[in-house]
C-alpha cells in the first residue's frame, strides 16, 4: 500500500489551515514577526531580493478551504508591496508597515502562480498555489485475459489538477498478494489510460484457474487517498487465440469438410467451453466486406479437435474463403471477446455447365464478297460463376451444304463469337457451353439464311442519340414485312465487333424508335436486325451516332484533314460519311489552342479560340494568326437541332512551320569572380523552332556559343571563363534556330564589372645610375586599383627583401653590402576592401562576409641583375684579359708567318719518269704531242697514272673534300701544285721521303650532305668492286707466282723497264658479263699536268697482259682509233674523278688482290740520286721480296679524250717518286706487303703466260 497521507512539510509560521480559527493563525505569525526573527521575512526562498512571501514555495489548498498569504519587505513600506495573478493586481490588506496579507475565503480549483511584488525594486517572490480535492472514483475499471496466458486490467484516470498515483492488487483466498502493481502509463503525454499486467512469470503470478478475481485500487494525491474494490467473473473476460491448423479434408462440387484444433490453454483451463462462428465469401461475386454466416451451434463446447461440413455452396469450380472464430461461452457476444479468425481458401470441384449460351435470330454479322462471305456468329456469354469448370469455352457446330464443322472461339480475342469463311448458302448453327468435364446437356440453335434472303430484309439508316445520364434514343427505318426486331448492344470499341458481353432484346415490329437506359460509366455501341420467320437481315450497326447534351458523338464518321501548314496559318478540311436529313446540321464550330508539349491539354497562358461556320455545306476553313512552330489542337463540333455535338476522333494536331525566335529573357549574371561569371537565361517566350544554340556577345563581339538540344526548354546556365579582373563587360544573348539558320535579336545588355583580382605581370624593371633608381611601367591589365607595388631584392644568395611602394619608381643604392650580384623584381598588388569586392552592374552580388582585406598580388616580373664586383677587381680582370689577348695574338702571328714561309719554299716534285723525257720522244706513238703544251694530250706514261675506270664528273664540294684529304697527307708540302702549272716542272727530292715509314690507309667517307652525293658514292662503290675484277692492277693474275718460292714475280718489259700490264681478268660464267654503265671515279691527280679531258669509251678487249718491245710502236699505231675533232669538255680541279674506296689492309696471303703503295726510295738501288730509266734487277739468289723491295703503285685509269689503245699496257716507272701523288701509302715493313716486290731480272726473262 502506498502511503497516501498528507506529507506536506511544516514551515516556521505555518499550521494546518483547517485547524483553529483564521485569526489565531494570523495573530501567531504577527507575534513571531515582531518578537521573533524579523530578518527571515526579507528573503525569498533564502535569497535576499528585498521582498518575501509566506508561506514560502508551493502552497496546496484543499478545495473548500481559504487561501492566505503574506508579503513582507524590509526597509520598504507596505504601500510598496502588492499581490498579482496573471498580471492583474489582487486585493490585499495591510498588516503593518512592511507586510500585506492576501486572503481568499473559498478559491476555485486551480493551479496558478501568485507574485509578491516590490514595486520600488520590481522584484517578485513567487508562490505556486494548487487548489484541488482528493482523487475521485475510477468508473471504467475492466480486465481481459488473453488466451488465459496474461491478465490485463486497465482504467482511465479522472480529470484532476493534482498528480495521482495508483496501486492495484488482487486477493487470493481472501488475502491480497504483494507487491501491488503501480500504474504503467505507456503514452503519458497522449492518453489518460492506466493498466497493470500479470502473467505466469510476473510477481505476483497470474492465477489462471480462479473463477472470480477480487481487486483493490487505491488512488492518492497530496490531499488524500481513495480506495475502490472490484470483483470480476474470470472466465467471462477470456479472449481465446484463434483456432489453428485449419484445413479442408474433403471438397465436393458444392460442399467442403473442414477440420481445426483449439488452443491448449482454452481446452485445459476454460471450464465453461467455447462458441464457434463460421463465415464464407464467394470470390468475384460477393462484396469484399460481405460474408455468408453459417449456423455452427451444433458444435460441442469442449473439444480439442473439430470437424464441420459446409454445404449448399452455390457454384462449382468457384473460389471460396472460409473464416472460423471462437469465444468463451460466458463472454458476451462482443467483438473484443471473439478471437481472431483462421481462414482457408479453396476451389470447389468442377462439373458440366448447367446451360448453353443464349442466342437469338439475327445474331450474326457478315462481310460479303463475290462468291463467299465471312460470318461472325454471336451469342450471350455465361457469367463466370456459371462456367463450372476449368478451360471453359463454347463449342459451335456449323452445318452447311451437307458439310459439318466444329468451331471454338479464340480465347485471345473474345468468347462472344466465332468467325468462319463460308459460301453464300444458308447454314444451321448449334452452340454448347463446354469445359474440361464436358459439354452442357442442352444447346442453342441459330439459323443463318442465304445471302439472297438477307438482302430482301435490308434496313435503312440506323441513328443513335446519346444523353449524358446514360439514356440512349435509337431510331431506324421501319419494315412492315417482318415479325420483330432484335436490338443488340455491347461496350464500345473501335471495331464493329463485340469483344465483351453481347446483350440483346426483341422489339415489336411496329416500333421504329426505342429508348434504353444503361450505366453511364461505360460507352455502348448498338446494332439491330429485322426478322421474318427463318429469314433475318443480320446485324446492322448504327453509323449516325449523334449525342445530346454535349455527349461525344460516337460512330459519327467525320474526318478532319489539313494541308501543309505555314508559319502562321493552316487550311482545314473535313468529310462526313453519315448522310443526315437536311436541317439536322445547322453549322460547324472549330476550336483550337496551343497544347502543352505532347499532351492534349491546352496551354492556359493562351486559351482557346473559336471559329464558327454557319454554312452547313462548307467543308473547309483557313485558320490564321497562328504562332510559328507551335503545336495546335483543332477540334470540330457539329451544331445540330439538338445543340452542339462533339464528334469522336474529329481532332487534328498540327505544328506550324519554323520562324525566327524571339530574344532570350530573364538574363541574370551571378557568381561574379575575378576571372569568371555565371550567366543564366530562360529560352525565348516564342521559340518558333528548334533552338540549337545560344550565342553570347560581349560588347557586340561573339564571346561564347552554348550548343543545346533542339528540344531543351530548360533554363540555361553557363560559366564564362577567361575574364579579366576589375574589368567591365556587357553581355547579350542571342537564340539561333539551326534548321532555318535564323537568329533572334540580342537580349537586353547586362552590364557587370568583375571582382578585384591579381594584376598582370610587369616588365623587368629598368635600372638607372646616378642616382641609383628602379623604374617600371604599370601593369597592362590592372585587375583592380593597383594599390601598391612590391620590390623583391635578392643580394647574392641571401633571403629576398620585400619593399612596398605606391610609385612607379624607387630610389635605392645598388650593390650596397653585395659581394657578387643583386637582383630586382617587381609586381603589382591589388587590395580588396570594397563591400562588394569591386563588383558593380546588373549582377547578383553578395556582401563581404568578413572585415579582412584580401590581397591579390600579381606575378613577379623578369629579374634585372646588377653585377656588383668592386672596381679594383674589375680593372684587374680587364688587365689580365688584355695581356692574354696580346700574347695570343703575338703567338698566332708568329705561327702564321712561319707557316707562310714554309709554304713559300714548296716546289712541286714529280716522281722520276712521270714526265716526258726532254730529248727522247721515240717511245710515243705521236711525237708531235707535247705534254708541255696545253692543247696537247698527255703521254702514255701519264695516262697510265689515271684510274683504270670510267670517268665521272664530281662536284666541286667532293673535289674540295678530297683536296683537303690530300693536303692532310704527310707529303702535302712536296706535292701541292698550282692549278696553272702546265709546263715542265723540275724534279726535286721530296723532303718527306726519309720519314715516310708508316702506311697511310685511306678510307672513303660517306657524304651525308645530299641524296645525289649518296647515290654517286654508291655508284662509285659498285664500280670499285667491278674495277677490281676488270682492272689488271687489282687482279692477282697480273703477277705470276714463282714456282719455287710461291711469291709473286713482276712482269717487266726488258726494253723500257716498265711494268707490263696484266691481262684483264676473264670470268667464266654461263652468262656474258655486261659492261658496267656507271662510271668509276678517282681522286688521283697527276702532278704538273693540266686537267685531262675524259671521254667515255668501251672497256678494252682482254689481252695477254705482256707487251713486247718490238710490238709497242706498231701495236700502238695499229690499234689507235681514228681521231676526230671533239669539243673539249671544260673541267677544273673540282671535276676530277675520285678514287674508289680501298679496302683496309688484310693479312698477306698468296691470293690477296690488295695492292699496297710503298716508297720506292726505300730500295737501295733507287736512291734519289739515281735517275735510271731501266729498272734494276733484284738479287737472283732467293726471289723473296725484301723490306726494300718495291711495291707497285695503285693503278690509275688510262682514259684520255684523244683515245688510248685498248691493248696498250699500263707502264709505271719504278724509279718515280710516290710524292707526286696525293693519295697513296707505303711501308717498309714486309709483313704488310701482299704483293711481291718488283724483281729487276734480265730484260729477256721469260714469263709464262699462264
From TrEMBL:
GO CC, alphabetical: dendrite; plasma membrane
Enumerate the transmembrane spans.
Answer: 873-894
Primary residence: membrane
Recorded GO molecular functions are: ATP binding; transmembrane-ephrin receptor activity
Stated membrane topology is: Single-pass membrane protein
Q: Where is this chain compositionally biased, Polar residues type? A: 948-957, 974-989
Region Disordered: start and end of each range? 910-1045, 1124-1151
Which SMART domains does this one have?
FN3
- Where the record annotates domain Fibronectin type-III, the positions are 556-659, 663-757, 758-852
What is the protein's given name? Answer: Fibronectin type-III domain-containing protein
Amino acid at each position: 500500500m502506498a502511503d497516501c497521507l498528507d506529507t506536506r512539510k511544516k514551515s516556521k509560521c505555518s499550521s494546518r489551515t483547517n485547524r483553529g480559527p483564521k485569526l489565531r493563525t494570523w495573530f501567531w505569525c504577527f507575534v513571531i514577526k515582531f518578537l521573533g526573527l524579523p530578518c527571515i521575512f526579507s528573503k525569498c526562498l533564502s535569497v535576499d531580493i528585498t521582498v518575501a512571501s509566506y508561506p514560502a514555495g508551493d502552497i496546496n489548498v484543499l478545495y473548500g478551504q481559504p487561501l492566505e498569504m503574506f508579503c513582507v519587505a524590509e526597509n520598504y513600506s507596505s504601500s510598496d508591496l502588492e499581490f498579482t495573478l496573471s498580471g492583474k493586481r489582487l486585493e490585499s490588506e495591510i498588516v503593518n508597515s512592511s507586510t500585506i496579507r492576501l486572503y481568499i475565503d473559498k478559491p476555485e480549483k486551480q493551479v496558478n502562480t501568485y507574485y509578491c511584488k516590490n514595486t520600488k525594486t520590481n522584484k517578485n517572490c513567487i508562490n505556486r498555489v494548487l487548489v484541488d480535492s482528493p482523487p475521485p472514483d475510477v468508473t471504467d475499471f475492466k480486465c481481459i485475459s488473453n488466451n488465459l496466458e496474461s491478465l490485463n486490467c486497465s482504467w482511465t484516470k479522472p480529470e484532476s489538477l493534482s498528480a495521482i498515483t495508483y496501486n492495484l492488487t488482487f486477493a487470493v483466498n481472501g488475502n491480497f498478494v504483494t507487491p501491488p502493481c503501480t500504474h504503467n502509463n505507456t503514452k503519458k503525454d497522449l492518453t489518460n489510460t492506466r493498466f497493470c499486467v500479470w502473467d505466469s512469470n510476473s510477481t505476483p503470478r497470474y492465477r489462471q484457474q480462479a473463477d472470480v478475481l477480487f481487486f483493490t485500487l487505491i488512488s492518492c494525491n497530496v490531499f488524500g487517498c481513495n480506495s475502490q474494490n472490484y470483483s470480476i467473473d474470470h472466465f467471462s473476460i477470456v479472449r481465446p487465440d484463434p483456432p489453428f491448423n485449419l484445413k479442408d479434408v474433403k471438397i465436393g462440387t458444392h460442399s467442403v469438410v473442414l477440420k481445426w484444433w483449439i488452443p491448449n490453454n482454452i481446452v485445459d483451463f476454460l471450464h465453461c467451453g467455447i462458441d464457434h462462428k463460421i463465415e464464407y465469401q464467394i470470390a468475384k461475386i460477393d462484396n469484399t466486406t460481405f460474408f455468408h454466416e453459417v449456423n455452427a451451434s451444433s458444435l460441442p463446447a469442449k473439444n480439442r479437435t473439430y470437424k464441420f461440413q459446409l454445404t449448399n455452396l452455390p457454384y462449382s469450380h468457384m473460389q471460396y474463403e472460409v473464416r472460423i472464430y471462437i469465444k468463451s461461452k460466458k463472454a458476451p457476444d462482443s467483438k473484443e471477446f471473439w478471437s481472431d479468425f483462421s481462414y482457408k481458401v479453396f476451389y470447389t470441384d468442377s462439373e458440366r455447365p448447367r446451360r448453353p449460351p443464349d442466342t437469338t435470330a439475327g445474331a450474326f454479322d457478315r462481310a460479303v464478297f463475290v462468291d463467299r462471305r465471312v460470318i461472325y456468329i454471336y451469342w450471350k456469354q455465361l457469367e463466370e460463376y456459371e462456367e463450372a469448370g476449368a478451360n471453359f469455352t463454347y463449342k459451335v457446330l456449323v452445318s452447311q451444304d451437307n458439310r459439318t464443322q466444329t468451331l471454338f472461339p479464340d480465347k485471345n480475342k473474345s468468347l462472344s463469337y466465332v468467325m468462319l469463311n463460308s459460301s453464300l448458302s444458308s447454314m444451321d448453327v448449334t452452340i454448347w457451353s463446354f469445359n474440361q468435364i464436358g459439354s452442357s446437356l442442352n444447346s442453342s440453335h441459330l439459323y443463318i439464311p442465304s445471302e439472297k434472303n438477307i438482302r430482301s430484309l435490308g434496313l435503312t439508316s440506323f441513328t443513335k442519340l446519346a444523353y449524358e445520364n446514360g439514356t440512349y434514343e435509337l431510331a431506324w427505318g421501319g419494315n412492315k414485312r417482318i415479325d420483330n426486331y432484335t436490338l443488340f448492344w455491347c461496350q464500345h470499341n473501335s471495331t464493329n465487333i463485340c469483344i465483351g458481353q453481347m446483350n440483346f432484346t426483341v422489339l415489336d415490329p411496329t416500333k421504329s424508335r426505342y429508348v434504353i437506359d444503361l450505366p453511364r460509366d461505360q460507352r455502348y455501341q448498338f446494332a439491330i436486325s429485322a426478322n421474318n420467320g427463318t429469314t433475318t437481315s443480320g446485324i446492322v450497326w448504327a453509323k449516325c451516332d449523334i449525342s445530346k447534351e454535349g455527349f461525344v458523338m460516337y460512330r459519327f464518321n467525320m474526318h478532319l484533314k489539313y494541308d501543309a501548314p505555314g508559319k502562321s496559318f493552316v487550311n482545314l478540311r473535313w468529310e462526313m460519311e453519315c448522310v443526315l436529313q437536311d436541317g439536322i446540321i445547322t453549322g460547324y464550330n472549330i476550336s483550337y489552342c496551343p497544347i502543352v508539349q505532347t499532351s492534349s491539354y491546352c496551354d492556359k497562358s493562351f486559351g482557346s479560340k473559336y471559329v464558327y461556320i454557319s454554312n452547313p455545306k462548307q467543308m473547309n476553313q483557313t485558320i490564321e494568326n497562328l504562332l510559328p512552330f507551335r503545336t495546335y489542337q483543332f477540334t470540330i463540333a457539329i451544331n445540330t437541332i439538338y445543340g452542339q455535338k462533339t464528334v469522336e476522333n474529329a481532332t487534328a494536331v498540327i505544328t506550324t512551320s519554323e520562324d525566327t525566335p524571339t530574344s532570350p529573357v530573364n538574363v541574370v549574371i551571378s557568381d561574379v569572380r575575378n576571372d569568371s561569371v555565371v550567366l543564366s537565361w530562360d529560352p525565348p517566350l516564342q521559340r518558333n523552332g528548334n533552338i540549337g544554340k545560344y550565342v553570347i556577345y560581349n560588347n557586340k563581339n561573339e564571346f561564347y556559343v552554348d550548343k543545346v538540344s533542339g528540344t531543351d526548354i530548360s533554363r540555361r546556365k553557363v560559366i564564362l571563363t577567361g575574364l579579366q579582373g576589375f574589368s567591365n563587360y556587357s553581355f547579350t544573348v542571342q537564340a539561333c534556330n539551326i534548321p532555318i539558320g535564323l537568329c533572334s535579336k540580342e537580349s537586353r545588355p547586362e552590364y557587370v564589372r568583375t571582382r578585384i583580382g591579381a594584376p598582370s605581370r610587369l616588365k623587368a624593371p629598368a635600372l638607372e645610375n646616378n642616382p641609383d633608381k628602379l623604374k617600371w611601367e604599370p601593369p597592362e591589365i590592372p585587375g583592380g586599383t593597383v594599390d601598391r607595388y612590391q620590390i623583391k631584392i635578392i643580394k647574392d644568395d641571401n633571403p629576398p627583401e620585400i619593399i612596398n611602394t605606391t610609385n612607379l619608381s624607387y630610389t635605392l643604392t645598388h650593390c650596397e653590402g653585395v659581394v657578387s650580384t643583386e637582383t630586382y623584381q617587381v609586381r603589382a598588388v591589388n587590395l580588396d576592401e570594397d563591400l562588394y569586392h569591386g563588383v558593380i552592374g546588373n549582377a547578383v552580388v553578395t556582401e563581404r562576409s568578413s572585415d579582412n582585406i584580401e590581397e591579390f598580388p600579381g606575378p613577379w616580373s623578369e629579374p634585372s641583375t646588377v653585377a656588383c664586383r668592386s672596381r679594383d677587381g674589375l680593372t684587374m680582370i680587364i688587365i689580365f684579359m688584355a695581356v692574354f689577348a696580346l700574347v695570343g695574338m703575338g703567338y698566332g702571328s708568329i705561327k702564321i708567318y712561319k707557316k707562310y714561309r714554309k709554304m713559300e719554299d714548296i716546289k712541286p716534285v714529280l716522281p722520276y719518269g712521270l714526265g716526258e723525257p726532254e730529248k727522247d720522244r721515240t717511245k710515243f706513238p705521236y711525237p708531235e704531242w707535247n705534254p708541255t703544251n696545253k692543247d696537247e694530250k698527255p703521254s702514255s706514261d701519264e695516262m697510265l697514272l689515271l684510274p683504270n675506270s670510267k670517268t665521272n664528273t664530281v662536284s666541286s664540294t667532293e673535289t674540295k673534300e678530297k683536296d683537303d684529304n690530300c693536303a692532310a697527307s704527310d707529303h702535302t708540302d712536296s706535292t701541292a701544285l698550282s692549278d696553272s702549272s702546265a709546263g715542265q716542272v723540275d724534279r726535286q727530292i721530296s723532303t718527306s721521303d726519309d720519314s715516310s715509314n708508316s702506311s697511310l690507309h685511306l678510307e672513303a667517307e660517306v657524304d651525308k650532305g645530299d641524296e645525289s652525293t649518296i647515290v654517286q658514292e654508291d655508284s662509285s662503290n659498285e664500280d670499285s668492286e667491278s674495277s677490281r675484277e676488270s682492272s689488271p692492277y687489282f687482279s692477282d693474275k697480273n703477277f705470276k707466282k714463282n714456282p719455287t718460292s710461291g711469291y709473286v714475280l713482276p712482269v717487266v718489259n726488258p726494253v723500257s723497264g716498265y711494268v707490263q700490264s696484266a691481262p684483264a681478268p676473264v670470268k667464266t660464267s654461263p652468262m656474258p658479263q655486261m659492261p658496267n654503265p656507271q662510271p668509276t671515279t678517282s681522286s688521283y691527280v697527276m702532278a704538273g699536268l693540266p686537267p685531262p679531258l675524259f671521254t667515255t669509251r668501251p672497256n678494252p678487249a682482254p689481252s695477254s697482259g705482256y707487251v713486247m718491245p718490238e710490238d709497242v710502236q706498231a701495236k700502238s699505231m695499229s690499234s689507235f682509233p681514228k681521231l676526230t675533232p671533239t669539243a673539249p669538255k671544260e673541267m677544273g680541279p673540282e671535276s676530277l674523278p675520285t678514287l674508289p674506296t680501298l679496302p683496309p689492309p688484310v693479312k698477306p696471303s698468296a691470293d690477296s688482290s690488295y695492292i699496297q703503295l710503298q716508297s720506292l726510295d726505300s730500295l737501295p738501288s733507287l736512291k734519289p740520286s739515281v735517275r735510271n730509266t731501266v729498272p734494276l734487277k733484284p738479287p737472283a739468289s732467293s726471289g723473296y721480296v725484301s723490306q726494300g723491295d718495291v711495291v707497285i703503285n695503285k693503278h690509275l685509269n688510262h682514259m684520255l679524250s684523244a683515245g688510248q689503245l685498248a691493248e696498250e699496257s699500263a707502264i709505271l716507272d719504278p724509279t718515280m717518286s710516290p710524292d707526286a701523288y696525293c693519295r697513296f701509302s707505303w711501308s717498309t715493313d714486309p709483313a704488310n706487303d701482299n704483293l711481291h716486290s718488283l724483281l729487276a731480272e734480265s730484260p729477256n726473262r721469260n714469263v709464262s703466260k699462264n
